[in-house]
Amino acid sequence: MIYTTYWPHAEPTYPSVSDILVRYGIDPGAARTRHGLVVGADLDAGQLAALRRDRQVKYIERDCVDGVARYQRVPETSRVPGQYAVWVADGCYLQALLARLDGTLLWAFDEGERFFYAQLTDRQRDRLRRDPDVLELDDDQLDSAL
């Protein structure tokens, strides 16, 4: 799984994973997708090394066979321990998803929204990343304005 980063002096400033794969001659049609979004690819050692040197690649995480949702980590000093922001696919029912995990919903717009905050143990977080309805899971961050 490939995580991109903002780079103000490049075109585009915030590339898609597909853009980066094409840059290195990797066919995005053979890449790993999650709900239609390209998130990674099978890489040989040379491709992996080249991607790690790319300034628009934040980091690369090994994927498992059944795929995992993207996980955006934040520095420990900025992290709210045990709280996560979660993005889900259309048609996913938040309460049902959390009930399967026994997680605690902290905040959501309403049942039809695709984004919510939850309190989870590490084990619940890892299980949630493997749920096919989950697109991305991020560490919750402390408000920098405080």
Protein model, in words:
The chain is α+β, with helices and mostly antiparallel strands and 146 residues long. The chain is 22% helix and 31% strand. It has four helices and nine strands. It has helices spanning 17-23, 45-53, 94-101, 122-129, and strands at 2-4, 32-34, 37-40, 57-60, 70-72, 79-88, 104-108, 115-119, 134-141. The strands form three sheets. A five-stranded mixed β-sheet has the order 5-9-6-8-7, with helices on one face. β7 (104-108) and β8 form a beta hairpin. The longest helix has 9 residues, at 45-53. The radius of gyration is 16 Å and the shape is globular. 19% of the residues are buried. The model has no long low-confidence stretch (mean pLDDT 77).
Report a brief summary of the structure.
The chain is α+β, with helices and mostly antiparallel strands and 146 residues long.
Throw out a few tags for this protein:
146 residues, alpha+beta, 4 helices, 31% strand
Instruction: Give me the count of strands.
Output: 9
Rough shape? globular
Structural class: alpha+beta
Distance between the amino and carboxyl termini? 33 Å
As a percent range, the share of strand residues is 25-35%
Sheet with most strands = 5 strands, mixed
Unreliable runs: none
Helix content: 10-25%
Rg over alpha carbons: 16 Å
Order of helices and strands: EHEEHEEEHEEHE
Sequence of strands across the biggest β-sheet: 5-9-6-8-7
**Quick check: average pLDDT?**
77
How many separate helices? 4
